[in-house]
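Continuing from the previous page...

OK, I double-checked the sequence for Carboxypeptidase against my notes and this is the correct one:
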Amino acid sequence: MFKLAIAALAVVAVVASAVANPDAEFVSHFTEKSLRDVGTNESICASNVNSYAGYYALTATKHYFYWFFESQQNPSTDPVILWLTGGPGCASELALFYENGPCTINDDLSTKANPYSWNTFANLLYVDNPVGAGFSYGLFPVDYDRNEDQIANDLYKFIQDFITAHPEFAKNEFFVFGESYAGHYVPALGYKIYTANQGSEGKYKINLKGIAIGNGLTDPEVQYRYYPEYAFNNPVKPLITQAQYNTALAEVPGCIALIAKCQNGTIACFEAETLCNSELLSPPLSTGVNQYDISKNCTYPPLCYDFDNLNRFLAQTTVRDTLGVGKHTWSQCNNLAHEFLTFDWMKNYQDKVPPLLASNITVLVYNGENDFVCNYKGSKAWTLALDWAGNSGFNAAGDHTWNGAGGVAAGLARSYGGLTFLQVFKAGHMVPLDQPANALAMVASVVSHTPF
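Thanks. Re-ran it with the corrected sequence; updated structure tokens here:
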């Protein structure tokens, strides 16, 4: 989830009172053993497979929460997919229960199997990232990440220790998927894994085979140019008038100039976020449209979707005891985690992609076409502009119909040299929520190395 309406930075004064205080015994346990599994969770979700959940101690005061589900087919040989939700600061349980996980939540808080779960043929690893998201927590301001180097290092350390605790997955093919602000996380982590594999940093060479960015913010300097165009000309309906369109176009050069300055500093990053979001994103949203799916109204602001069942589900004592989260509260989207990344928002991360492609690591950029906030026009534009050896071939490749589930036309794809851009029909910001069968078909193509 991609959060836009966040107050100005006033973090230091409020962090001490806002961060949850875990009990002392819980903390001391993790200073002795960094990775803690609580075992199988048949009574919570996915009764037909083994699952593990727990905390990983990045430091004595900084802890990731994770939840792992084995594949329904052959866990020992099926790929591992790491999923990262965006925000920044939103919980991966949102994707687990509403998009691609093994189960969904009924109104009576029981769960039922999701027939389109990605663990149909892959092991699924969800992480609440960065600290502050979901059940993850930090005790002090220093525990909160400020940039993608810190986030990528944390995630790399976690993956290494997860494999150490579960060496049976050490040789499995590994994929990093993420959505929305994970358009920052995914290429940064992919590049971190790639560079670490070149040296001797980790105990294990992570068998990275691909990354995928869904409706992501990856190259703001290119993507922000396309907000006026999408708002005025999209597959559903115009969100702004001709006059508003002309006004927005006039604001684009100043916005892009600030984003360019942000790449070499920090103050311009805050200025860019403030100006660009106010002038380019705010006018369409004043209509009450769902910014994540413009075919709908925003019925439950600010995220526009009703996640109350998840809030109530994770508040249950039985669930919390099984997950081993102690007294820690669950945060759907954490404002502190978001605010600490204010100066990261407008940074470009598309430059992490070319080295991956050069090493035969698959890169998929997919977008639901009804999403405004990370729209397909901007995402497609940055893939076309990407500076890599296959740029001319990718631009010349052209779009072709992508047949999804059941062989039915489900989108438009463009592929060349390991890079694919996929526009998914009749889907918004969360493709697996809106098009679950087609999303499963998409993932199957990625992990089986089948062309789109």
